[in-house]
Amino acid sequence: MITLEMYLTLSALVFGMGLMGVLLHRNLIFVFISLEVMLSGVNLALVSLAHYMSDIRGQVLALFTIGVAAASVAVGLSLLVANYNLRKNTDIDELVELKEEASND
Amino acid sequence: MIYLIFIYFCISFLGISHMALTRKNPVHGVLWLLLLFLHVAVVYLFLNAEFLGMVQVIVYAGAILVMFLFTIFFLDIKIMPKERRIAKLWEGRLVIGLSFLAVMVLVFSSISPTYKGKHTISYVESVGNTRIIGEILFNEYGLGVLLLGLILLVPMISVVILGRRKA
């Protein structure tokens, strides 16, 4: 029998993969792809908890998560397009307008 | 047998997300992400969430990934060289990410809830998964559905404003 702990560990591992992607990637598109991986890890945890606690509200919450994820991806991609129109690239290390001038990295 | 299936899904989740996050070309990354979402939908079927599996395929794989692909094709992104694909200060970021991952795996692998709700498998089977989700969604969380509609309206306005070219 597959226990709840195994599903939760799997979801934590998927979330962690996405987190490493968000932290390490320099291309803004890959940061959004990593965010989607993180969200699928969270949804997996919600649905497995809903199954093992026999309460279907976890699935309803996962449904809300999917809706809000769609909204956040729409805003993020439109910001990406605006940033691309400004600088002609998608490099997050070049977003340095708020950085102090005197500091040498 | 069920263990073999679960081990397959563990290996494929980790392998597919690794492949999705290490591609050079963003289009290949999005296509690997599509494969990951289809695997997640199958795992939802194992967890008795038929409606959510269908929503995962239709909304995530059908709508959100098409939005990703459209944006990538729209921007004409050049593939970044290898030394520019990893962010600056990556050692500290790697340490933070690995420690967070270790804490999350330790905590999540020791959760054992005692609460049991009333939606048991036989009850859900007798009424129907989609009907129960609909009843709870529109009775208990009706205000949440309205707020979700509002949240989905705001990005539409923001996309129109942000995507508008200066005259």
Explain what the structure shows.
Chain A is mainly alpha-helical and 105 residues long. Chain A has a domain at 26-89. In chain A, 73% of the residues lie in helices and 0% in strands. Chain A has three helices and no strands. In chain A, α2 packs antiparallel against α3 (57-87). In chain A, 50% of the residues are buried. The mean pLDDT of chain A is 87. Chain B folds into two domains: 1-78, NADH-ubiquinone/plastoquinone oxidoreductase chain 6, subunit NuoJ (Four Helix Bundle (Hemerythrin (Met), subunit A), Up-down Bundle); 124-167. The longest helix of chain B is centred in the middle third of the chain and has 26 residues, at 50-75. Chain B is mainly α and 167 residues long. In chain B, 75% of the residues lie in helices and 0% in strands. Chain B has seven helices and no strands. The mean pLDDT of chain B is 87. In chain B, α1 packs antiparallel against α2 (26-46) and α2 (26-46) packs antiparallel against α3 (50-75). Chains A and B meet through α1, α2 and α3 of A and α1, α2, α3, α4 and α6 of B.
**What is the domain total for the residues of chain B?**
2
**Which residues of chain A form runs of ≥5 with pLDDT under 50?**
none
Largest sheet of chain B: none
Number of helical stretches of at least 4 residues of chain B: 7
Broad CATH class of the largest domain in chain B: Mainly Alpha
Structural class, from secondary structure content of chain A? Answer: mainly alpha
Shape of chain A: elongated
* Helix and strand run of chain A: HHH
SSE succession of chain B: HHHHHHH
Q: What fraction of the residues of chain A are assigned to beta strands by DSSP?
A: under 5%
Largest chain interface and its two residue counts? A-B, 76 and 89 residues
Termini separation of chain B: 63 Å
Superfamily (CATH H level) name of the largest domain in chain B: NADH-ubiquinone/plastoquinone oxidoreductase chain 6, subunit NuoJ
Helix content of chain A: over 70%
The oligomerization state is heterodimer
Helix content of chain B: over 70%
What gyration radius of chain A follows from the Cα positions, in whole Å? Answer: 18 Å
